[in-house]
Design brief:
It is a single chain. By secondary structure, the protein is α+β, with helices and mostly antiparallel strands. The protein has helices at about 1-25, 35-60, 65-95, 100-105, 110, 140-145, 155-160, 165-175, 225-275, 285-315, 330-345, 365-380, 415, 440-450; strands at about 120-125, 130-135, 180-190, 195-210, 215-225, 325, 350-355, 360-365, 390-395, 400-405, 455-460, 465-470, 500, 515, 520. The strands form four sheets. The chain has a five-stranded antiparallel β-sheet, with helices on both faces. The protein has a five-stranded mixed β-sheet with strand order 7-9-10-12-11, covered by helices on one side. The longest helix is centred in the middle third of the chain and has 51 residues, at about 225-275. InterPro entries: HATPase_C_sf (IPR036890), HATPase_dom (IPR003594), His_kinase_dom (IPR005467), HisK_dim/P_dom (IPR003661), HisK_dim/P_sf (IPR036097), Sensor_HK_Regulatory (IPR050736), Sig_transdc_His_kin-like_C (IPR004358). Pfam families: HATPase_c, HisKA. This is histidine kinase. Its EC number is 2.7.13.3.
Length: about 525
């Protein structure tokens, strides 16, 4: 068995030697591949087997003198064709697989940084300590024109002293594992004169890159954001001015309202005295008419002042609600009785309908009555003679709906969205035929919001308006007012005792004294703070 194996190995070596000479390629690095030798071995083995079989098979069909040369020729031709086809196939397959070692070019490390030249702003590459290793960026020339050399600590030296801690803190976050950081810094830039420095606001987007052997580099993209900072400052100033103006408006309205109420009460009181003729009769009816007009005008102006005061308190968050349970029926009937005469004088019919299911409501009674009075007065004002104003009250689960409807002039759809804005009128300012300040519905909207309810309006021009106020029955929607943080006053000693120290803790000079409760010195040598 070993003899047969050694003979086969020698034959294979001989075949391989012949095949290498036959298959050698002068332009190839490798002489012959193992796959090509395997094809030659298999083709040779097949030729050895086919060489006696083909003539024997043909001898059964043709004479032996013809079968022997023809069969041998067919066997050799088939072996030669199979060998050429197999080797060509092996080389084709090997040619489709590129040699990666030949395709991979040797890259220059500087080429890896060339991509940063397309980035906006200034791009700097730093090491773990923050030292600059390379300077890139699309706007590199614009920045380096006014900057000193950035290599090493040059980048850090450009940062304002108070902002360097922000940059170092962000760099430390990258060292601890954060993928990216973003900080806003101020860079020092020398002016043309060189006598002073100005600050340029920059935004630095920092990204950590890990290389071989855990070597970390930091890519920092720096962009000028001075315009953005300026816009932010302007927006903050505008917001502060608007808040100051709004606060001034609130204080003005409150002060004016308080200052006007006192003389208005006097005007109304003295007009009542004149109308009652307590100190003598008036001469004629015209004098009585004038006194009545004075009283009516004072009453109207006082209601406007009270409404303005209530609005300023609501806007300032100082309107205090006193919740208590009360009968809704009583409030509706009181409102109807109060405004019945006004409706009759206008020629408008005022009615109310209260469902049996309506019981008590836990809310501020005065505020709810003010809501109804404002809505009914508004409905009467915008309803022509012969019209109808109806007040409905009904229960809807844990809520109560108060509905005031009229058959007045109505409102357009674009005007409904403006309801609740102070001093807003539904008719044109040049063609107004209804007096009013536009504060009534604004006050209603504010009072309803304080109760946690909602106000809905449905109206059509020429057909009328329906205003619905929905309030929680149990008063759970009432907005709690913030409790004032009162600082207890410091105890005052009387008579005040004199101390031997003044502001700053220094000893009082001769002739200087300081009150224990004060803090500033008095005397011939006292100094102003």
């Amino acid at each position: 068995m070993s003899v047969l194996r050694s003979m086969c190995e020698r034959v294979a070596e001989r075949v391989d030697a012949v095949a290498r000479k036959w298959l050698s390629r002068p332009t190839a690095k490798d002489d012959v591949t193992p796959a090509e030798l395997m094809v030659v071995r298999r083709v040779g083995l097949g030729a050895v087997v086919a060489l006696p079989l083909f003539p024997a098979a043909l001898a059964t069909l043709v004479p032996a003198s013809i079968a022997l040369p023809a069969g041998s020729a067919l066997a050799l031709a088939g072996a030669l064709f199979s060998g050429v086809a197999g080797i060509a196939l092996v080389r084709r397959i090997a040619g489709d697989r590129p040699d990666l070692t030949e395709l991979a070019p040797v890259r220059d490390p500087a080429d890896d940084l060339a991509i940063y030249d397309r980035f906006v702003g200034l791009v700097t590459v730093h090491d773990r300590a923050g030292h600059v290793l390379a300077v890139r960026g699309r706007d590199q020339a614009a920045y380096t024109q006014w900057m000193r050399p950035l290599a090493g600590r040059g980048f850090l030296d450009h940062i304002h002293v108070s902002d360097r801690i922000l940059f170092l803190r962000a760099l430390d976050g990258l060292r601890q594992g954060a993928g990216s950081q973003s900080v806003e810094l101020r860079f020092e830039r020398a002016t043309l004169s060189g006598e002073q420095t100005q600050f340029v606001h920059m935004r630095c987007d920092m990204t950590a890159l890990c290389g071989p052997d855990d070597a970390m580099t930091v890519v920092v993209q720096t962009r000028d954001m001075s315009a953005e900072v300026l816009l932010r400052q302007e927006a903050a100033e505008k917001a502060a001015q608007a808040e100051s103006a709004n606060e001034a408006k609130r204080r003005f309205l409150a002060a004016v309202s308080h200052e006007l109420r006192t003389p208005l009460n006097a005007i109304m009181g003295f007009s009542d005295v004149l109308a009652g003729e307590y100190f003598g009769r008036l001469e004629n009816d015209r004098q009585r008419e004038y006194v009545s007009l004075i009283h009516q005008s004072g009453s109207h102006l006082l209601s406007v002042v009270n409404t303005m005061l209530d609005m300023s308190r609501i806007e300032a968050g100082r309107y205090e609600l006193i919740a208590e349970p009360f009968e809704v029926r009583g409030v509706v009937k009181a409102c109807e009785a109060m405004l019945k005469l006004q409706a009759e004088n206008k020629g408008v019919q005022l009615t109310s309908r209260i469902a049996r299911s309506v019981g008590e409501l836990n809310a501020d009674r005065r505020a709810v009555q003010q809501i109804l009075i404002n809505l009914v007065c508004n409905a009467i004002k915008f309803t022509d003679r012969g019209g109808l104003v109806t007040v409905d009250a009904e229960a809807d689960g844990d809520q109560i709906r108060l509905v005031v409807s009229d058959t007045g002039i109505g409102m357009a759809a674009d005007k409904i969205a403006l309801i609740g804005q102070p001093f807003m009128q539904i008719d044109n300012a040049y063609s107004r035929s209804y007096e009013g300040t536009g504060l009534g519905l604004a006050l209603v909207k504010g009072l309803v919001a304080l109760h946690g309810g909602r106000l809905t309006v449905e109206s059509r021009p020429g057909e009328g308006t329906v205003m619905t106020v929905t309030l929680p029955v149990d008063g759970s929607g009432i907005v709690p007012q913030p409790e004032a943080q009162l600082v207890p006053p410091a105890p005052v000693e009387f008579p005040p005792r004199l101390t031997t120290r003044v502001d700053g803790g220094r000893q009082a000079a001769p002739g200087e004294v300081a009150l224990r409760q004060g803090g500033t010195a008095h005397g011939p040598q006292a100094k102003s703070a």
